[in-house]
Amino acid sequence: MEARSGPAGRHLGRPGGYRAFVPAPLPPDIALTPSLLRSLSDDARSHAERINALLAQWRHSLAGAASQTPVQLIDLLAENPCWTIPRIAQRLDVAFTTARRAVAKLEAHGMLTQTVGRQRRRVYCATALIAILDEPARLQPGDPG
Predict the structure, then answer these.
(1) Cα atoms in the 13 Å half-sphere on the side-chain side of 15
(2) Of 6, 7, 42, 132, which sits most exposed with the smallest number of CB within 10 A?
(3) 35-145 fold
(4) pTM for the full model?
(5) CA atoms within 13 A on the CB side of 20
(6) pLDDT class for 145, splitting at 50, 70, 90?
(7) C-alpha 13, offset from chain centre
(8) Distance between CA atoms of 8 and 11, rounded to whole angstroms?
(9) Cβ-contact 93, 86 below 8 angstroms
(10) Which pLDDT does position 49 carry in this prediction?
(11) 10-51 pLDDT, tens per residue?
(12) Is the predicted pLDDT of residue 91 greater than 70, yes or no?
């Protein structure tokens, strides 16, 4: 497992190509004031709203498709932005080929990217969602930090 550290915490490479972020502890000179907590809460809400808006946009762009599997896959991306085709097939209770077609459709629309290029168990990630999740917290002016 690879680890990259920075001032905000560290990213751990996870099996399957996904990264987990472990935040650094707060420095001792930063107190969890109501103002700081409100700012962090507002920032988390902003991230969630942007993720939900992106997922809604993706669902809308696939509305009216012959198969609902790609839309169901978008719902899975809300749970976890990285999946393998066998796991998608299992979770959606569809055939492997149906899951593969759904992944191909989302890839064609730029929603998914293959991140691990192995012959088997390829990992596909919604990099736009990961980019939002990886953004550092934006504190409001006047907040400590």
Answers:
(1) 1
(2) 7
(3) Arc Repressor Mutant, subunit A (1.10.10)
(4) 0.73
(5) 7
(6) very low
(7) 15
(8) 10
(9) no
(10) 94
(11) 555 555 555 566 666 666 777 778 888 888 888 889 989 999
(12) yes
Nearest-angstrom CA–CA distance, 98 and 118: 20
Helices (H), 6-123: 34-61, 69-79, 85-92, 96-108
Asked if 144 and 30 count as a contact pair (C-beta separation under 8 A), the reply is yes
pLDDT at 103: 96
Rounded to 5°, angle at Cα 98 from 114 and 65: 95
Structure tokens at 17: 């190509």
Whether 88 has a pLDDT exceeding 80, the answer reads yes
| Domain boundaries along the sequence of the chain | 35-145
